[in-house]
Amino acid sequence: MMTDWRNETEALTLKGQIKMPYTWSVGETGSRFLVALRDEQKILANRCSGCGKVYVPPRKNCATCFTEISTENWLELGNEGTVTAFTVVRYAYPLQPVAPPFAYAIIQLAGADVGFVHIIKDGLDRLKNGVRVRAKFGIERSGRILDIDGFEIV
Ligand SMILES: [Zn+2]
Ligand 1 center to residue 112 CA distance, Å? Predict the structure, then answer.
């Protein structure tokens, strides 16, 4: 009878880090969202015609009911929302969007049904779940998520 080598072999793990530049298409849905951030300082969302869920960033397909979201179902959200979760980053790491300290936050924008992940740089001592925040757009924008410079506590 053969023994199963998987029962005899120690399971090992390896640690590593990857820093790799890359470029990929954000697609038509992502492009419309990012162009609106860049050119109009507007946060666009889209609504699933199947279940009514409002997504920001907009999605091509609904994550809940898998309906393809129509190109007609776009809406503009305001720039304010509520923090529903966050973590404060206090260590420096090359892949972070800004120098610490800052917070990654999940923000429930008014009118959206899903959280929007972004950063908060100031007022970290006042940051807590339920606090109201507002998007602050950067002066120079290039069609990326950090065209919103961050969210500020209102
Ligand atoms: Zn849906």
Answer: 13
